Structures are given as structure tokens and as C-alpha cells.
Fold this protein.
Amino acid sequence: MEIRYPNYGSKMAESACKHLRRVGDNYGESCSDCGAQLAGFGNWATFPDCLHQWFDDPALDYVICYYCETQRKRDPNVKEIHTIQ
């Protein structure tokens, strides 16, 4: 099954779009209107590079991406998007 987005690949459409209709799965999230990659690899992994969404677990010495599981050192000056309390 092929997914087609209206105006896919149009930078003008992406920049004007407010990304109000989002679709996502365990690979990432995309805009239903313009097809822009919003998180991870986009819905159905339609993009080759990951837009990382970092997850912070205080029990670990590093943060990890939800989508590609890349690890990096925790930066004390940066508050991560998702944190376990």
C-alpha cells in the first residue's frame, strides 16, 4: 500500500502548513496535509533520517531516542522532551 500526501515535497506547502492533522506510528510522525516529517522517520518510515525525540530516564546516564534508539550523553543544560518521574 502506498501513502500519498497532498503537496508532498513542496517546501512552500510545508512552510505554510500548521501541521494540525498529524498521523504517526512506531516509526515516527508526519503531517497529513503537507507530508512534512514531524518526528522520528515520519509515518511509515517515509524519511531516511530520524528527527530525534529524546527520552530521559534519570536511572540512566544517557538519553535515548524514542524512534531509532540512538543514545547520547545527557546535557545538564538541556531539558529533555520526555522524562520519567
Remarks:
- The two ends are 40 Å apart (CA to CA).
